[in-house]
Amino acid sequence: MRKNINKIIRIVLGLALILFGLDKFFEFLPHEHVMTEEFIAAYHGLLANKFIMPTVGVVELLSGILLVVGRWVIVALLAMIPIAFGILGFHISVDIQGIFLGALITVMLLYLLSGHFSNIGYLIKQVDAKN
Questions:
Q1: Domain count of the chain?
Q2: 10 Å Cβ neighbour count for 55?
Q3: Over the stretch 35-73, which tens digit does the pLDDT of each residue have?
Q4: Which of 29, 53, 112, 127 is 20 to 30 A from residue 23's alpha carbon, by CA?
Q5: DSSP code per residue over 41-96
Q6: Is the CB of residue 61 less than 8 Å from the CB of residue 22?
Q7: Of 66, 101, 11, which is closest to residue 3 (Cα–Cα)?
């Protein structure tokens, strides 16, 4: 049962990441409901730095694809940690009304990471042993 729940959460998270990753490039999701002056200023600041949003989009897109396919899941989850907390930080500071999806993504990410805790520990030990 738990294996099926993990698979469902992994696929839902992957599809959400693909959706939000593609939105970074094609801007097809509506953002007008949160376009306050503070949000616009913060978003324009991110866009002025020409590599942050495309980088976030690429990481979201690749992580989402890996999660949906079910390959290199640990790598995809680890790559998403800073992005998930960046999403939370952005919504806490600028758009608290839009925090639900960011919090949901973070909770799903942490849930999936908790299932791979021993594997992540093993990976860290292997890297430390080579250094």
A1: 1
A2: 13
A3: 677 777 877 777 777 888 899 999 999 999 999 999 999
A4: 112
A5: HHHHHHHHSTTHHHHHHHHHHHHHHHHHHTSSHHHHHHHHHHHHHHHHHHHHHT-G
A6: yes
A7: 11
Amino acid, single-letter form, for residue 41: A
**What value, to the nearest 5°, has the Cα angle with vertex 15 and ends 14 and 20?**
100
Write down the pLDDT at residue 79: 96
For 77-126, what is each residue's pLDDT tens digit?
A: 999 999 999 999 988 888 788 889 999 999 999 999 999 888 888 878 88
Of the chain, the percentage scoring pLDDT greater than 90 comes to 52
3-state secondary structure labels for all residues of 5-45: HHHHHHHHHHHHHHHHHHHHHHCCCCCHHHCCHHHHHHHHH
Residue 69 CA from chain centroid, whole number: 16
User: Does this model's pTM top 0.70?
Assistant: yes
The neighbour count for residue 37, using CB atoms within 10 Å, is: 7
**Which residues form the domain of 36?**
2-130
